[in-house]
Amino acid sequence: MAKITVGDRVKCQKNGNTDYDFYAKVEKIYENSAYVTITHYDVRDDINVVELQYRAVISLKKMTVAQPSDEEKEKMQAVSAAMLAE
After folding, report:
1. Of 12, 20, 86, 19, which is closest to residue 56 (Cα–Cα)?
2. Partners of 37 in the beta sheet?
3. What is the Cα–Cα distance from 76 to 78, expressed in whole angstroms?
4. What is the pTM assigned to this prediction?
5. What does the pLDDT look like over 61-72, one tens digit per residue?
């Protein structure tokens, strides 16, 4: 497993708060988890992600260093700076 550090772009597996995998940026590392800001997510998870205010704490075991491909970006909702400012 690659060491995940602050600033990394990661793919997170679905969890109790979301129904689909999503991409995020690591903001803070804890012992076994990380605080992330969601950057790209499945449109079907819109309500869940908004309720999370585009942030989540995810187990390090449930994420890998990755960025969405161009094809995935077309299918996923991207989070804008305006959304984060709400």
Report:
1. 12
2. 25, 55
3. 6
4. 0.87
5. 999 998 888 888
